[in-house]
Automatic annotation (TrEMBL), chains A, B:
Thiamine binds at L9, T43. It comes from the Bacteria. The lineage of its organism: Bacteria, Pseudomonadati, Pseudomonadota, Alphaproteobacteria, Hyphomicrobiales. Coiled coil: none annotated. Residues 4-83, 122-200 form the Thiamin/hydroxymethyl pyrimidine-binding YkoF putative domain. GO terms for molecular function: thiamine binding. InterPro entries: HMP/thiamine-bd, MTH1187/YkoF-like, Thiamin/HMP-bd_put_YkoF. This is HMP/thiamine-binding protein. It holds the Pfam family Ykof. Gene3D superfamilies: 3.30.70.930.
Length: 202, 202
C-alpha cells in the first residue's frame, strides 16, 4: 500500500510566502512519520491516512489563523497500482477484510463525532473516486450517505459534496471517506478543497 | 452525458477580488454555451469539454496577465452516472464507438500540436481517473504515454503528471486526456492544477 497527498496552500495576500512559511511548523509533530517533497506546484506528503489528514488539518488551521483568505487543495490517494508498496503507509484499516457498508458508515460517524474541535471554521468540498471496480457508484453513494449523516454536511453539488464546520470534524470526515469506502486494498482517490476567511457571502 | 468542471481561481495578492473580477470577461465568448453557478468555494461550468477547457484557459490567461502568482484548480468530470443527461454537453467524441488506443493517442497529439499559442507560460499537474472499469490503469497508462509524447510533458510525480509550457497546449493536453481516454460513454474525471508567476525556483 502507498498512500499520501499532493497538497498546496493558497493564501490570498501579497505576503503569501510568509503565511505559508509561518504555517509550516505545524507539520513538525508529524515529520518523523511523513516523507515530504516540495516543488513549485505542490508538496507531497507520504504516510498513513491518519497522519496525512492530521498534518493537513494542522497546517491549514495554522495558515487560516493569519486571518487571510486561505485555501488548501489536496489530491489524495491510497492503493494506486502504479505506486510502490511503502512500509511508512501501512495501517490496519487498509489490510483488514472489507466490513459491511453499514458497519463502515457507523465507524466513520463515530470517528468524526469524537474529533476534538480546532476552533477554526472552514468550508470544504471533495470528490471520492473508487477505482478499478465495476460498481463504483455503490461505494460512492455509501460514502455520501455517511457524509449526509455527519455534523458537517452542507450540500450536494455537481461533481462533489460540500462540508461546513470546524476544521477538525471536516478533515476527519474526508479522512474517513478515504479509509472506509472502496475495498481496503483498492485504489481510492479524493480531490479536496478547504477554504477559510472567504469574503464571498454564503 | 453530463460534463463540466468545478473551478476556482486563486490570485496570491491582497487584491485577489479585483484580479478575479477583471478576468471574468474572458468567459463572455463562451457564456451562451455554458451553464455557470458560483458559490464561496468554486464556480460550476457545465458544457462540452472543448468549451469548458477553452473557457478555463482564457480565464486563467487573463488572470495571469495581472503578473500576480495565480493558480487555477478544476475538478473536471464527464459521464458521471449520478448526473442528469444534458443536451448542452453533447459532443460527437463522447458518443462515437471507442477507437483503438493508438488512434486516440495520435488524435490527441495532433490536437495539442495545432493549439494556437497564448503567450502565457504555465506549470500544471493533473490526475486522470477512469471509473467503473476493471482495468482502469490500462487507460491511465495510455494517457500517460500520450502526455509523455506531447510538447508540454515535464515530469511524472506521485499521484499526478506535471506539464510545463504555453497555456494553450497545456490546457489542450488535459482536455484531450478527458476526451480520448476511458470509454466514450464512461465516467472519467480529472483533478487539475495550473500555476503561473510562481516565485518558487524550479
Amino acid at each position: 500500500m502507498f498512500s499520501g497527498a499532493q497538497i498546496s496552500l493558497y493564501p490570498m495576500t501579497d505576503d503569501f510566502v510568509t503565511v505559508i512559511v509561518d504555517a509550516l511548523s505545524a507539520l513538525d509533530p508529524y515529520r518523523d512519520r511523513l516523507r515530504i517533497e516540495t516543488d513549485d506546484i505542490s508538496t507531497l506528503l507520504v504516510g498513513t491516512p491518519d497522519v496525512v489528514f492530521n498534518a493537513m488539518r494542522d497546517l491549514f488551521v495554522a495558515a487560516a489563523a493569519s486571518g487571510r483568505h486561505c485555501v488548501l487543495h489536496a489530491s489524495i490517494s491510497r492503493g494506486c497500482p502504479g505506486e510502490p508498496d511503502d512500509p511508512m503507509c501501512h495501517t490496519p484499516e487498509l489490510t483488514n477484510p472489507m466490513a459491511p457498508l453499514d458497519e463502515r458508515k457507523a465507524r466513520a460517524l463515530a470517528t468524526v463525532a469524537s474529533a476534538a474541535l480546532s476552533g477554526q471554521s472552514v468550508a470544504a468540498q471533495f470528490s471520492l473516486y473508487t477505482l478499478g471496480i465495476d460498481q463504483h457508484m455503490h461505494e460512492i453513494y455509501g460514502c455520501i450517505d455517511f457524509v449526509k449523516s455527519s455534523s458537517v454536511f452542507d450540500k450536494s453539488k455537481n461533481f462533489c459534496t460540500k462540508l461546513r464546520g470546524d476544521a477538525a470534524p471536516v478533515f476527519a470526515t474526508v479522512g474517513e471517506a478515504l479509509l472506509r469506502f472502496g475495498h481496503p486494498a483498492g485504489h481510492v482517490t479524493i480531490d479536496l478543497t478547504v477554504s477559510a476567511n472567504s469574503p464571498t457571502p454564503l
